[in-house]
Write a structure and sequence with these properties.
Blueprint (H helix, E strand, L loop, with lengths): L8 H7 L5 E2 L14 H10 L2 E8 L3 H17 L3 E8 L3 H13 L6 E2 L3 H9 L7 H5 L11 H5 L2 E2 L2 E2 L15 H6 L11 H11 L17 H10 L19 H12 L14
Parallel strand pairs: 2-3, 2-4
Antiparallel strand pairs: 1-4, 5-6
Helix pairs in contact: 10-11
Amino acid sequence: MSDQVSVSRRSFLRLSALGVGATALAACMPVAAPAGGEAGGDAAMAEPATVSFLTQGGGEVAFLRYEPLIEDFQAANTDITIDPIWEPGGAIQIQTKLLTLIAAGDAPDSYWAHSYTNSGQAVRNIQLDVNPFIDADDDISGDDFLLAAYKDFQYEGRQIGFPRETTSTVIIYNAEFFDAAGMPRPTDGWTWADFIECATAMTQGEGPDRTYGTADWHRNRNTWIRMWQKGGDVLSEDRTKFTMNQEPSLSQVVEIQDWHQEGGIHVPATVTEA
């Protein structure tokens, strides 16, 4: 268990600027807001503190994302030093590192999390419930965040972290490909039938010179939007049963699979996508 830091309520809430969760095992702050008014909070805030932060760090992109955030945060909060623990990979790799550090008795004070892994960690009571700190401070509110992303960090009434950002899925098309194939460009009211017709027309050539009409549908986030559009989902509404193998989800998965078959309109899995 980490014993390197005791962070005040206000110091912790300032950490939310990094979009992180805090480990309940890291002993970085009391669960209840400190009593005794602002004097105690100011005194605690003035004490220098080092906060360990487990996060993505496998290459230049990750460093360019986080190092400026850490530098800006430390410049605005000179009493806090962020000690990053860089770990290559995504949600699964970070979770593996997190669980390993916890098992070794050296849990990080805060860590990068993903909605994919939140619930599994919450069942194990890894995350600190930050609701008492939010309730005790007027400077931060759940209303400051996009609701869907904020709720991804909730479990059984506990707020177990803060979202750094959320993303949207859009379809981007190559206008030159449409023009070369003699196909009209997408307009309002474009249908999936139109999509397939255009993708089929743009799939041409053989071997390394072959061009494909579409790509990226093997990624789960893109498969999901097809299911959601048809009223399906990955899990049942109570999130206890896998439903991706049932209609209307199954037919969408099968259709995307068909796009990948030999002679199909989708870049095959054996081809590296740029």
